[in-house]
Amino acid sequence: MIGKTLKHFEIEELLGKGGMGVVYRARDTRLKRPVALKILRPDLVTNRDRQRRFLQEARAAAAVTHPAIAQIYDVDEVDEITFIAMEFIEGETVGQLIAKRELDLIGSVEIALQVAEGLSRAHEANIVHRDIKSDNIMVTRDGHAKLLDFGLAKLLDPVLEGKEEESSRALMEAETLSQTRAGTILGTIAYMSPEQARGQKVSKSSDIFSMGIVIYEMVTGKLPFERETPLDTLHAIGFEEVRPVTRVRQNLPPELNRIISRCLRKRPKDRYPDASPLAADLKNLKRDIESGIQRSAPLSGRIGQFFESLKSSMPFGVIGIAVAAGSLVLVGFLMFTERSQGSIIVLALSGFIFYRYIRNRKNRMLKRFTKEISKFPEVRAIIVRGDQVTVVVNQAKAKLYLRVNSLIDLVNKKLYFGGHVEAAVRDDLSSDEFQRMLREPRVIYVRDDVILKSDSEIAKEEDSTKSLIGKGDVP
Q1: Domain match, 230 and 352 both
Q2: Cα separation of 60 and 127, whole Å?
Q3: Residue 224, CA distances (Å) to 13, 77, 331, 395 in order
Q4: What pairing do the DSSP bridges indicate for beta strands 127-128 and 388-393?
Q5: What pTM was estimated for this model as a whole?
Q6: What residues does the Protein kinase domain cover (predicted)?
Q7: Which residues are known to be catalytic?
């Protein structure tokens, strides 16, 4: 493509490649200025769905005008080549700046604020970016942040509701591609929101989660959920809490930790609803840092956090709190009035039965989980150790992983007591490890064709392996 001219854009050099397009530096021969020209990959020209999404990128980005969003100049199709001409930005990505350790606290907050303000403008237009990551944020030589690549953006139009299969398909493609293009797809997965990781519908709060990851990465130099494999990363996004930034790096403001923590809540409704209040908090934080002020959480905020914690731990949320309070009042009334002991005993017994019913809810829900997951033919066994569920499989597939995550998330949402359940999908167990796990008392499912070996058989295999190792036949 180098040297080719599309309309009045003369292609000069290759800048990079993405999931759907190839980006070139080109020259606008009419206005005599450099532009970035993004061209749909040749192997995707016949894919009408990808082409529609590619054009949607331009329309979504062109609908928003803000200094922190790369400007779109033109979108067209010439000789079956679809392209977008956009603002050419000289500078480095946030990812590059992080790798070079060139970001300090105030610089990180300033970049986050600029991007949040630009994203706020997009959210006002009902546009969700869906691919916010450090490599999609450029910082110009004069320190201005620019949000790039609305390639996965989707207009939040009611007509489009119900067409969210793309996320699930993309995730399945990601697992396959990550095996041949290590690091390319994983880089995007590490910034996904829990709902994106499960192939569910995304919203403005999905962008907020990704923004929280970028801010965390800028101030600590680490990705909060990145693990060794894509599946482990997805599991961390869905179920693991991040270490507070104030523990990862000393002397960071508590207010920064509060902002990041709110961005990284697992439930979308617990995050900032859109980028506007996030930008407002970042602006206040920047002012405090510049003035040397460090604010602690206000009393009202601490009371609110306590109430939220109580609400999440009580059966039926607010209704559960009301029932518990009413029960305490009733017990007090019966105790301090002339009521028979029988009434108190009956009430206490009813309360105990109700408590036991709720207390055993986790076991009942894990049985339902086992019933659903055991339907997958690749599942060999399911083992429960405390709050850890291990699903042993022949091969870990994205479809199974999505289902496991979805069901475990449902279990955790309906838990009333105890810690949240975590799940792990294992396809890397040796024969000896698997046999040892099968002998544990908390095995709740084993596939019919799985054979439990005797102790003598396991001992013979171990002796045989040691003998081969001694002879050098086994590396």
Answers
A1: no
A2: 7
A3: 35, 41, 47, 27
A4: unpaired
A5: 0.61
A6: 9-285
A7: 131
